[in-house]
Amino acid sequence: MPDNLFIFIAIGFVSQIIDGALGMAFGVLTTTSLLTFGVSPATASAMTHVTEIFTTAASGASHVYHRNIDWRLVARLAPAGMLGGATGAYILVSLESDVIGQLVSIYLCAVGFYILVKAFRPVWPREIRGRIILVIGALGGFLDAVGGGGWGSIVSGSLIGRGHAPRKVIGSTNLTEFLVTAVISATFIATLGWSELSSAVGLIIGGIIAAPIGGYLVSRVPTKPMMIAVGIVIVTISAPRVLGGV
Prior knowledge:
Number of helices: 10
Structural class: mainly alpha
Largest sheet: none
Shape: globular
Helix content: over 70%
């Protein structure tokens, strides 16, 4: 684990810029970076989610200010995501997550390629409805906790891939992530304790600095370039994990 506070600040800043603008990737980028420094999977996921309590609050407030929120979507996603997240955090602390992590990476690659295909075809925004929202929320929360990230990739990626307006999806999933992350973090703190998570301070500083910028960017980036960027980010992050068998 690096001792230099500025390394954590840089990781938090870059990850949150991408997450705030694209609605995904903070957890995946942060957890992956921490793992390269030798942090255990459970601690890396826990540090990431403790940080996200602060970054998602700041990012969500930014999206509210820029009117990127569909409140009906938030009301449907939040309960399912919170339940799935608490379950995933408990399982990660108890079990080995290598197999689950590999399956998540394969899924994210598929979603990324699907979004890239949709970006070059006509996409007509439609109302978000049905039980699929509950399924996506629960799955997103569970895999986010177990894999150290993926809420935005799974939830935003799935909804954008179904043809929903990217700006509203990204803003709504960012705001909902605050509630999901709070529950996941509470579960980790209850099982791991706080002493192992104190190094998250640097991540928090970097993430909070970057959070307001994402809401500004997503309210001004056209739909097609945004979808292309989302697809590229997902594939770029997930493909090496799939090929490496991690």
